[in-house]
Write the structure tokens for this entry.
Amino acid sequence: MTNVVVIGSQWGDEGKGKIVDWLSERADIVVRFQGGHNAGHTLVIDGTSYKLSLLPSGVVRPGKMAVIGNGVVIDPHALCAEIDKLEKQGVTITPDNLRIADNATLILSLHRELDGIREDAAASTNGGVKIGTTRRGIGPAYEDKVGRRAIRVMDLADLETLSAKVERLLTHHNALRRGLGETEISHDAIMQELTSVADRVLPFRDTVWLMLDRERRAGSRILFEGAQGSLLDIDHGTYPFVTSSNTVAGQAAAGSGMGPGSLGYILGITKAYTTRVGEGPFPTELTDEIGQFLGERGREFGTVTGRKRRCGWFDAALVRQSVATNGITGIALTKLDVLDGLDELKICVGYTLDGEEIDHLPASQGQQARVVPRYITLEGWKESTVGARKWADLPAQAIKYVRQVEELIGAPVALLSTSPERDDTILVTDPFED
Ligand code: GDP
Ligand code: IMO
Ligand code: MG
């Protein structure tokens, strides 16, 4: 018996929410450890769809504890709105099933505003680089965390020190805003913003590292829910077209306060093709009718922003890289059904860069833009795999595709998903028992 870390092995939206929901039946605690409400995780249970951004996907199962760890950046207003939305869907959320790390960083309205200002004026303020962020204030909030001037959850409980912290934060932000030609923000406005949510947020706060240590010793099963994907990681991703946190599995330890030795099985959620939202390099992108087919069949629209996701062939070189940077034990291969009916399927096995064959994506932005994918071609299948619940239900060509993926990425398939529905999942190896 072990703990399980779920992370995305591509550019996000691999189906982490569905798999975390499925696995959470076997877990006692589900922990988010990075990112914020830039994430959009979709769960479909008996035809009802739940969209979660900040709350761990385990929150919809009665009797499970959901935890927001210290590595997450929390917009308290977004948190309250999400709790209200889920309660309307019949999910009860109280301190009995949700805990928030008292040392987690808060996202304020000024972060959200700054995110938008930078994106709108990318040409003049950001060296011409538009990232295509979710505009949720994620980057600016992490900047303040690393700059040691952030407001954290526990600060809401101590108004006297809060006032001094807000002062310090505004000294930085107002200087920045003056430079950008924006109006300054008053101390009172931020104090008002924070005090208005304190009573709602504080009951959930906990010393999360201590609670997880106690639970681990008592034998509880802990499931870590990553957000975004490994190619959006601030260090290992396609920088600067990345998010502002480490999204790789190692962050599950730092972002929750549990030692890396207790993390256990690393499950990389992997889409059977590739998608990306926002700007940045995408070697296997398809701008033709096949890309359109994948987008339509896979319903590839962003959960958070509604933007159309860019679609392309499966890139085994990228996922092989994620297997290494995360220490992936096995993968959950999702959305295989979306490939049904295609005559042939291509898989990228490496790249050509300036006439030379390479087998991984280089770190340089210029080189990333220049790589040309090298493909192998497989025969497709005509049968439907939608809703398949056992290996034997899969057409021979689909099995061949899955085996080829395993071989190329160097990791086995532990779970296979064949529709958005919770139970349309084939279990090969139980990550909790591996
Ligand atoms: P996440 O961010 O990784 O949790 O993924 P999203 O929820 O943003 O996007 C994945 C989308 O694919 C969601 O709409 C899911 O309901 C859906 N989905 C998940 N697994 C499957 C699958 O195996 N087949 C199909 N067709 N859809 C799936
Ligand atoms: P889930 O958890 C896909 C992308 C944005 C943008 C970049 C930076 O649902 O897989 P940010 O707002 O984080 O500063 O934006 O990262 N991005 C995601 N793409 N899935 C996500 O989350 C994402 N979260 C952020 O589109 O390109
Ligand atoms: Mg998503």
Q: What stands out?
A: Residues 8, 12-18, 40-42, 44, 269, 299, 303, 334-335, 337-338, 417-420 surround guanosine-5'-diphosphate (ligand 1) (CB under 6 Å). The radius of gyration is 22 Å.
